[in-house]
Design brief:
With about 80 residues, the chain is mainly alpha-helical. It is built from two helices and no strands. It has a domain of about 40 residues.
């Protein structure tokens, strides 16, 4: 990516549009070159429960297994 970007910078330098490669690559109008990556969004922990405020603060509430009824297969029924 930097090799391709240097070509674009050299063309802009020859036209007198740019003098510093760092400023050229960081400019908003040159983001399509892909040299400077945009900031990632922070990871957000999603809660898949329909009413999470009623479930409490335990992080494993979606994966609680009831030990009262054992799992059965179709052959055991």
């Amino acid at each position: 990516m930097i090799y391709r970007g240097l070509y674009h910078f050299s063309v802009a330098y020859q036209k007198g549009l740019a003098s510093d490669p760092v400023k050229y690559f960081a400019a908003r109008e040159n983001q399509d070159l892909g040299i400077v990556k945009r900031k990632r969004k922070p990871n957000i922990k999603l809660i898949g429960a329909p009413f999470p405020q009623q479930l409490g603060e335990t992080p494993e509430f979606l994966f609680k297994v009831s030990h009262q009824t054992p799992l059965r297969t179709a052959m055991q029924a």
